Amino acid sequence: MEKIEGQFYFVNERLEKTEDSAAFPVFEGQTVYELIRVQDGIALFLEDHLERFFRSAAYLDLPPDATPSDIAERIYKLTEANQVNEKNVKLILGKGTSGESLLWIFFTQSIYPPAAYYEEGIRTSLFHIERLDPNIKLVRGDYQKAVLQERAEKDVYELLLVDANEEITEGSRTNVFFVKGSALYTPPAKSVLLGIVRKKVFEICEKRQIPIHELPIPVAWIDSCEGAFVSGTGNNILPISAIGEEAIPTMTNEIVQTILSDYAELVKQYKDNHGSAKK
After folding, report:
1. What is the CA angle 150-152-156, rounded to 5?
2. Other residues' Cβ atoms within 10 Å of the Cβ of residue 239
3. 111: which residues sit within 8 A by CB, 6+ positions away?
4. Band (148; pLDDT cuts 50, 70, 90)
5. Are residues 107 and 4 in contact, defined by beta-carbon separation less than 8 angstroms?
């Protein structure tokens, strides 16, 4: 069951009250979703998220009965109605019990990493599991259950997924990057969910002329990497201090610190430039 927060949500073009959970939409078959972080009342990188959402919808051959502008307007109406300053908004698209297209937009439970994780880095662990159709945000209860259980058992913030070739593909809810020498390395686009923050990391590297290579990442790389971090909507960019028992010297790596600083500035500029969107 989805954890709905706030007094209101949208189903298609209808703004509804959350007090009656029996009125929540019921989907038949596969659904796709998108998660967008609202910060200071601004939906961060909304255009990029909606582009990916429509790409996921095309995968299911289920176009939303709304334009990107329509959805953006609903998100900001919902933000205002719920008086949200910082929280994640979720979009779920699928077919209803009568075969009709349903687009559900609501604020969901949002827990962000504490400041210490950005200052000291996070502990991670390897997990042998592969996501089907990694480029698409499909709702998969079995995957989510397995990941939550493994994270709890290993007592880590994030899991790095390992495929049958003993290569790291991505985090369970993030993309992952490694530093060797003066360059950044990340798994190929075809093997991962194309995260929005991942896209911003590429933009920062292009601007800074930091070489970035999309290559398979063998597990054996761990003991020689000079820095590592994960990126994701709910986490922004989180430095990794350890993978399993292997300590990673991320916090003293200049490349990682530059990317962290530049990303924070990118978020600030986006909010400054889109402050009128919520009015």
Report:
1. 90
2. 22
3. 234
4. confident
5. yes
Q: What is the pLDDT of residues 225-242, one digit of tens each?
A: 999 999 999 999 999 999
Taking the CB of residue 256, how many other CB atoms lie within 10 A of it? Answer: 24
Residue 60: pLDDT band with limits 50, 70, 90: confident
142: left (phi over 0), alpha (psi -120 to 50) or beta: alpha
Pick from 108, 125, 140: which residue ends a domain?
Answer: 108
SS3 74: helix
Answer with the one of 108, 143, 162 that is the final residue of a domain: 108
Pair of tokens at residue 106: 């609501």
Instruction: Please state which of the ranges 5-14, 127-136, 163-172 shows the lowest mean pLDDT.
Output: 127-136
Q: Which residue segment(s) compose the domain that 73 sits in?
A: 4-108
Instruction: Please indicate, yes or no, whether residues 220 and 93 belong to a single structural domain of this protein.
Output: no
